[in-house]
Amino acid sequence: MAQHHVVIVGGGFGGLAAAQALEGAGVRITLIDRRNHHLFQPLLYQVATAALATSEIAWPVRHILRQRRDVTTLLATVTGVDVAGRAVLLDEGSRVGYDSLIIATGARHAYFGHDAWEQFAPGLKTLEDATTIRRKLLTAFEAAERETDPERRRALLTFVLIGAGPTGVEMAGAIIELARVTLRGEFRSIRPDEARVVLIEGGQRVLANFRPELSDYTLKALRHLGVEVELGAAVTEIDANGVVYGGKRLDAATIIWAAGVQASPAARWLGVEADRAGRVKVEPDLTVPGHPEIFVIGDTATITMPDGKPVPGVGDAAKQGGKHAARVIRTRLGRFGKPVPFRYNHAGDLATIGKRAAVIDFGWTQLRGWLAWWVWGLAHIYFLIDTRNRLAVAMSWLWIYLSGQRSARLITQGDAVAMAREPAKH
Amino acid sequence: MAQHHVVIVGGGFGGLAAAQALEGAGVRITLIDRRNHHLFQPLLYQVATAALATSEIAWPVRHILRQRRDVTTLLATVTGVDVAGRAVLLDEGSRVGYDSLIIATGARHAYFGHDAWEQFAPGLKTLEDATTIRRKLLTAFEAAERETDPERRRALLTFVLIGAGPTGVEMAGAIIELARVTLRGEFRSIRPDEARVVLIEGGQRVLANFRPELSDYTLKALRHLGVEVELGAAVTEIDANGVVYGGKRLDAATIIWAAGVQASPAARWLGVEADRAGRVKVEPDLTVPGHPEIFVIGDTATITMPDGKPVPGVGDAAKQGGKHAARVIRTRLGRFGKPVPFRYNHAGDLATIGKRAAVIDFGWTQLRGWLAWWVWGLAHIYFLIDTRNRLAVAMSWLWIYLSGQRSARLITQGDAVAMAREPAKH
């Protein structure tokens, strides 16, 4: 009998956890991703704010799995799934057959039907997103230094974040720090600490998933740092020069979107039902209704736990989903036991606020302030994939802590080929 | 009397050295660059071959000069010079007047009249060039893993370098190492150590600027590593699928240009005479004929020493040029002494060959092998701009030395906005 072939699409937290949990299961695994790297998304905002280098939070999937002779890693873009023929379709027309399929393709940011906003307000999901935002942030200060019109200069030094979840809160704290500490004393016409950071949230509190007392603490801590927080303010317009919220217009050269996500098109590939955010509605064992051989996990799926709470779109839920899918496949192949439904175990929520404070909600207890900040930092270093990355991130943080200086303050412009098209260069 | 205003265009080795040498001269300085970072070009090939992160060899010019209250740094693209009106013209139409002007805008790679070759054979001068080459290199192995046609696979695993100066030699050694050490055991269909690295040189020896015995040593060392070196082979054609040299066609998916450079358009800005490579012919004091207030230094200028040798296009020559221009300005302002002509002092040539060998030509003595490699490594760490970069590069090298693993194996695709235009994504 041919060996059972598991195809995993996506090398993020979910896909990687599935591959790792299938070690020794006697299956053949093909992991397909259109990126060559696994990305540690929780620290992506630090690349966007020049604190970390791209390579410090990304590591080749192929390298992580190099010792697993049962795993083949493919860099390819999946374009669809032949559900009846049990094959994944790749960009250049080839097919990869499977016995079991695990889809863990994550989510992109979404603009609630306002796709035109993307060009003015980039979101933060990939390394390219992060370097785009980094370029926008740093270029705004540079342009302000050259600007002579005071109104235009004010707009250049206004940074708007839309959405006060962990990403919005962490970005706001990091941008204030960039302006007040890192860039201090480096400009001659502007004072970077005059920069305004405005965090706009449609709901009534920041970090809505946390306990109200932590939201209150975070709101106070953000305002203490100098972040202007606007609650209950729905954004109705975004253009190249600013944003309209709550009926008011705010001129700003830099607008960052941290408000909504949309699942990858797995539901379309499979021709199955999805919720409003594009997430596939899966069975309690994370399989697609009517297709026990197809699992959808992480941000690409939606599932409600027995206590009525939805599983949140966080890395840890994706990891647990990947492990669960692996367990179900093992159980089936072993022909013993009965697959149990997925039980999500929520370890906690955490977010940093600037350089010296954080909030952590473990459910059974809460932490805030500098102790939470240290726990946050150590936990993130611990969860990084590789010793090399742990060392590099620890060193970068130590450097920032001691000197205030961020080590990745690069304005790069993407592709050399694209740049060659620019008319003026010297 | 208004303070003497020195405008420096370019924040590379030359421009930075000029700014630093003008400290305390009582002048006002404006440094203009279209990049926000000073780039340590001698290690750029290590970014292209995934050994170093971009931020490890680049540092914001503004930050380097932050404590110099006499220096204003501007991120701007120069489009020309109003020589009669003594002003530099910027992209958005504004002018920056000067009393003295120092042009240190460097060079780009050039294709000897075959500009169409650039899209197939990128050169290596900027961070974007480096990430483009890194993407091409890493993607070739990934595509080979998926390729079923053996001929096409062979082309994907063939890496061609054109030009056997230090860049070509260093890249060749690094690519062989990437294939044989870093990627070992990570693929399932291909064996990365089957990769061919072909170094094509039109002249009769590698490292033509070095003593013949060091060229001989380097040739042997390269061949020992497994690099195929083709001497006296002129390239007559480059396209998307390969290269023609010496009448032979070689199919190769990755071609890298390390053969020629072209100075930035300073001669055109100034309306003065240039040599074939676009370099401005300057007076013995590095000023433009008829314009003692304009200096052109580094790769942008051409000048012959009293011994008849041209000043080479290396970082150290640019630094010495910058210092010289500063000295001339100081002498003039001090109204004492007589400006002396520029004297270039050649410290030596050096190049690495893979991981354990290098050649150094000091003129009075030569070094080769592992000792040269250590001298090379320590010298490069010493000359890096900042303590932070020194630590980071030292750590990256130590890691590669111990583990063989390169820490920046990222395939990134430039801009998030550009990527959004791609049709297929998940």
TrEMBL record, chains A, B:
Gene3D superfamilies: 3.50.50.100. It catalyses: a quinone + NADH + H(+) = a quinol + NAD(+). InterPro entries: FAD/NAD-bd_sf, FAD/NAD-binding_dom, NDH-2, NDH2-like_C. Residues 346-404 form the External alternative NADH-ubiquinone oxidoreductase-like C-terminal domain. Its EC number is 1.6.5.9. Keywords: FAD, Flavoprotein, NAD, Oxidoreductase, Transit peptide. Pfam families: NDH2_C, Pyr_redox_2. The keyword Chaperone does not apply. Signal peptide: none annotated. Residues 5-307 form the FAD/NAD(P)-binding domain. The keyword Metal-binding does not apply. It is an enzyme of class 1 (oxidoreductase). PANTHER family: EXTERNAL NADH-UBIQUINONE OXIDOREDUCTASE 1, MITOCHONDRIAL-RELATED, NADH DEHYDROGENASE. Belongs to the NADH dehydrogenase family. This is NADH:ubiquinone reductase (non-electrogenic). It comes from Devosia oryziradicis.
